[in-house]
Amino acid sequence: MARLVMLSGLPGSGKSTLGRLLAERASAEYLRIDVFEQALRDLNGADFDVGTGGYKRGYELATHHLQAGRDVIVDAVNAIEAARQGWRDIARSAGAEIVEIEIVCSDPDEVHTRLQTRETGIEGLAPVTMEAVQARRWDPNPYCTYTLDTGGREVPDCLAELLQVTGLAA
Questions:
Q1: Are 84 and 6 in contact (CB under 8 A)?
Q2: What confidence score (pLDDT) does residue 170 get?
Q3: For residue 97, which phi and psi values (nearest 5 degrees)?
Q4: 3-state SS, residue 110
Q5: HEC assignment per residue over 43-60
Q6: pLDDT by residue (tens digit) across 69-126?
Q7: Which of 18, 88, 89, 128 has its CA 20 to 30 A from that of 1?
Q8: Alpha carbon 139 to chain centroid distance?
């Protein structure tokens, strides 16, 4: 059975780093919503309001991969319940299992440093400020399978934990 791993978390939490590595280790498809949103801005102008467009593209691709029997790792903020429900609906319609993981970094100084030094790998993606992260709306997730705190931890340790929690460990 295909599995959808939904990684949610605010910018600077470590979800993109961990999502990419998890997908590589598990030979899963990696869908990063930032890529789809930036593509929309590239087509429509830097000030274009992407709205739910990036998520809609992610939902389409996730559906395609899950129906083909491939595991999917989704890297998205997923700050509101409606966005998370979209992934659940896709998993259900594709007959796939879903694992919902919230990635957090409990150390604000570490988040600040990550935001200032991160390389997104996405040309044109505007940097995110600490103020924007702190002001971001966040709905609690009643269906969260697991919360992983990356604060003060090494990436390999966090990745090993994710592989175990998701059931994708080799």
A1: yes
A2: 61
A3: -80, 150
A4: helix
A5: HHCCCCCCCCHHHHHHHH
A6: 999 999 999 999 999 999 999 999 999 999 999 999 999 999 999 999 988 888 888 8
A7: 18
A8: 15
- As a whole number of angstroms, the distance between CA 6 and CA 78 comes to 9
The residue with tokens 């992407």 is 50
Instruction: Identify whether the C-beta of residue 44 lies closer than 8 Å to the C-beta of residue 88.
Output: no
DSSP string, 59-89: HHHHHHHHHTT--EEEE----SHHHHHHHHH
pLDDT tens track for 123-155: 888 889 999 999 999 999 999 999 999 999 999
Q: Is the dihedral of CA 88, 23, 70, 65 positive or negative?
A: positive
The structure tokens 């007959």 sit at: 95
| Other C-beta atoms lying within 10 Å of the C-beta of residue 86 | 19
What CATH number does the domain located at 3-166 have?
A: 3.40.50.300
Q: At residue 13, what are phi and psi to the nearest 5 degrees?
A: -80, -25
User: What gap in Å lies between CA 92 and CA 45, rounded to an integer?
Assistant: 35
